[in-house]
Every structure is written in structure tokens, then in C-alpha cells.
Design brief:
45% helix
């Protein structure tokens, strides 16, 4: 958990002008990323709505989002 801010800074240096694209597994992590990154990040969450984190299986579109994300 403590490595995330450091990783964000490294990725931020690489994408200095653009928003940093971050994909998280659960909503609370996305909220933390948004709180820390503010206007500099675009955080999305894979498990949303009524989907259980215990039964979640990634769709092909989720894999594309992960592959295209900075973090």
C-alpha cells in the first residue's frame, strides 16, 4: 500500500502533461487514487456495482483497460 504513491510519482514523470491512467480492483482503492492524484489522474475500478470481488472474472475489455493503463 505504501508503494502506490511512489509508483504514481514515477509514472507521473513519464506522462507529465497527460492525466495518469490508473486501474484499480475495488472502489475504495480508486477513491484513494483520486484523492491523492486529484486532477492529475483518471482512476477507474474493475469491480463495480453488485459484482462480488470474490466471483469477479475479468472481461476482455477489462484486460484492454489494464493493458492501456499507466498503473
Amino acid at each position: 500500500p505504501l508503494m502506490a504513491p511512489g509508483l504514481m510519482l514515477i509514472a507521473w514523470e513519464k506522462a507529465s502533461a497527460a492525466k495518469l491512467s490508473v486501474v484499480t480492483t475495488i472502489a475504495p482503492l480508486a477513491m484513494v487514487v483520486r484523492d491523492l492524484g486529484g486532477d492529475h489522474v483518471d482512476a477507474t475500478c474493475l469491480v463495480t456495482g453488485a459484482t462480488s470481488v470474490h466471483s469477479y472474472e475479468p472481461a476482455p475489455s477489462d484486460l484492454v483497460r489494464i493493458a492501456n493503463a499507466d498503473l
